[in-house]
Design brief:
With 299 residues, the protein is an alpha/beta fold. The chain is built from 13 helices and eleven strands. The protein folds into two domains: 108 residues, Nucleotidyltransferase, domain 5, CATH 3.30.420.40; 146 residues, Nucleotidyltransferase, domain 5 (2-Layer Sandwich). A six-stranded mixed β-sheet has the order 8-7-6-9-11-10, sandwiched between helices. A five-stranded mixed β-sheet has the order 3-2-1-4-5, sandwiched between helices.
């Protein structure tokens, strides 16, 4: 079965095409195609409230290219999800309607709760069912926090704090305070010990810069050490010496500040980084949907 996922984020937009493979009774998704384009819709939306004509034009061209790839690979099913920038944009739904009419590509705008639900589905196999976890997903425009116990969601909350939003100083101190209150009310160190689980491109890169390998935990002290090293570098040095994409080089520090703050509030000493995200959750959902085992219900 061939499946395609499109993740329309505030910083970048991704397409992944996979085929499902069953080996020794286990399901695996083999990547056939992966495209990441740094359109940064959030830069427009968090500044002006709308997507500009030039970004709209590029977005439609990109969706046309993605639709061609989906058709060329003859996928059995696909799903395109748009997150905070598109859902907050005054003209977001109008653009999505145009894409559906002109390109025949259907896009679903999902709220923070559904975004967290999809990603949680992707990380579940990496967790010890006997432990408690705080899942921290930092995107360009929002941060989704989910408390997991016994492998199941206890509660979750989405906050309008993200790497692109923070870079442009559009993150409100009130929302930061609300996020801190939520974490400290949900997690009391004397009662609950949690391990953080991080998803998002920036924590993946920080994990790599810490020279960790899959399965390792990244301690908060090491994360702060990597953050300090990167902060001391110019944008050009981050691009040339660390080989970061330009659209990663400027947001990696704002993103790291969010992960570290949440970990400190939760008294989480370590963070797991399974290197999965929204696109992986979408793949899981599509597989379950097409094998009559649908688990995710969208509100």
């Amino acid at each position: 079965m061939k499946l395609a996922a499109i993740d329309i984020g505030s910083n970048a937009i991704r397409l992944q095409v996979t085929t499902t493979i069953h080996t020794k009774g286990e399901l695996n998704f083999k990547k056939l195609e992966y495209v990441r384009f740094p359109l940064r819709l959030g830069q427009d939306v968090f500044n002006t409230g709308t997507i500009s004509p030039s970004k709209k034009s590029k977005f439609k061209k990109l969706m046309r290219a993605f639709k061609l790839l989906i058709d060329l690979y003859e996928v059995d099913d696909y799903m395109a999800c748009a997150t905070s920038a598109m859902r907050e944009s005054k003209n977001g739904r109008e653009i999505i309607k145009e894409v559906e009419e002109d390109i025949k590509l259907k896009i679903r705008i999902i709220d923070g709760a559904n975004e967290a639900l999809i990603i949680n589905n992707a990380i579940s196999t990496f967790l010890d069912k006997k432990k408690d976890y705080l899942h921290i997903d930092v995107g360009g425009g929002s941060t989704e926090l989910t408390l997991l116990r016994g492998g199941k969601k206890i509660t979750s909350k989405s906050f309008k704090i993200g790497s692109v939003r923070r870079l442009g100083h559009h993150d409100s101190p009130i929302i930061w305070n609300n996020m801190k209150k939520w974490v400290t009310s949900m997690i009391k160190p004397e009662e609950t010990k949690v391990t953080a689980v991080g998803t998002g491109g920036n924590i993946n890169k920080l994990f790599e810069l810490a020279q960790k390998v899959p399965g390792d935990k990244l301690g908060i002290s090491k994360l702060k050490e990597v953050q300090a090293d990167v902060r001391d570098m110019s944008i050009e040095e981050r691009i040339n010496e660390l080989q970061l994409n330009p659209d990663r080089a400027d947001v990696i520090i704002p993103a790291s500040e969010i992960y570290i703050a949440v970990m400190e509030w939760a008294n989480a000493k370590n963070i797991l980084v399974p290197n999965v995200g929204l696109k992986d959750g979408i793949m899981q959902h599509l597989y379950e949907k097409n094998t009559y085992q649908e688990k995710i219900k969208f509100s």
